[in-house]
Write a structure and sequence with these properties.
The protein has helices spanning 14-19, 59-65, 68-84; strands at 27-30, 34-38, 46-52, 93-95, 111-115. With 125 residues, it is an alpha+beta fold. The longest helix has 17 residues, at 68-84.
Length: 125
């Protein structure tokens, strides 16, 4: 089900439950600002999700409401995860879907890190 990114944050979403420890996840990284884990339905050989620890529905919500420290911490965490996974040299793709046209499925900001094979064109034509 696609997410309406203009709606308020729902603290019962699956990523909020993962952050609270109510649902297990295969953790890759965690710090004060972010939590990274393997996607349960990988779309590439490497498919890691990075989520901020704050309650943000989408990139739009995050960029408008997060503190400077949250933004810097989250962006640095995404880079750290990619570097530690050895993805910089061969290359990787970041994807953050916002709203229904982009097929956002979880109402908590998340960045997908895809790697491990030639990823093809940016959009299906």
């Amino acid at each position: 089900m696609a997410v309406d990114a203009t709606q308020p944050y729902d603290d019962q979403n699956i990523f909020a439950k993962i952050l609270r420890g109510e649902i297990p996840a295969r953790k890759v990284y965690e710090d004060d600002w972010a939590f990274a884990f393997h996607d349960i339905n990988p779309q590439a050989p490497t498919h890691i999700l990075v989520i901020p620890k704050g309650a943000y529905v989408s990139w739009d919500d995050f960029s408008a409401k997060a503190s400077e420290a949250e933004i810097a911490g989250f962006v640095r965490a995404v880079g750290h995860v990619a570097r530690e996974a050895g993805l910089v040299a061969p290359g990787y793709r970041l994807l953050a879907n916002t709203g229904s046209d982009a097929h956002q499925e979880v109402p908590h900001l998340h960045v997908h890190i895809f790697a491990g094979r030639l990823l093809g064109p940016m959009l299906v034509r």
